[in-house]
Amino acid sequence: MVAEASGPPNVLLVDDPAPRVRRLTLNRPEKRNAISNELRAALYDALHTADRDDGVGVTVLRGAGPCFSSGYDLKSNLGEDRPFYTAGGDGTWSRHVADGWSRLWDLAKPVIAQVHGYAMAGGTELAAACDLVYVAEDAQFSYPVVRVLSPPDFQFHPWLVGMRAAMELMLTGDAVDGREAVRIGMANRAFPETDLERETLAMAERVASIPSDILQINKRTVHRAMEFKGVRTATRAGSELQGLAGNLQSTREFFADPAAAVKRAAASGGAS
Questions:
Q1: What is the mean pLDDT of residues 128-135?
Q2: pTM of the predicted structure, to 2 decimals
């Protein structure tokens, strides 16, 4: 059974494809599942509902249509109707979304990302916030915004892939496919796209077979270790640096003429 989550109709679909497995589908295929504030609000609500449901052991998150997500919906007004309050000032948006994605870490139950097509910019941030990530072999992860505008809002790169790979991703904005994402640590496993859903659900069922109280403490063990290393402090500091990027000359030029800035970035070469 597939149902609409609370919030704007159809932006998020909810079903239970296997015992103790809740599945959430980003359902804006006509917008390449661009992440609007409405979609984020529906997503958080559905995740909180699953976390409180004794019949759910794990949640799978995927995208409808040709891709997982193209990133934040920059054609919508991201300053209005945010899912929760964040203090204003420079960097308010990046602080807001970084705090929001961190909420996935704090859920009691694991969240699994199922990524096909491409995950760009904010879409990679959403996948990074999940506890497990399974991808199609030909999926594409990229953060091309670093070429023309700013570093990411939720700066997960060094924590997942290490310094050298993170530096290359941040300095080029180039894409990596599913196999490479697994190799560098951005994802757990890659499968042919035709097998991705079956394999992801198989792993979800395996995880969900473990009692939720044990899953909760096991999940926290990993996240607490990352916090001792400084992941929360670093991502918060990174969101402040993202805010400073708004004062750069190149960033001001982008907002004055986005098409010209994108053309310059494309001329620099590399995968998009």
A1: 98
A2: 0.91
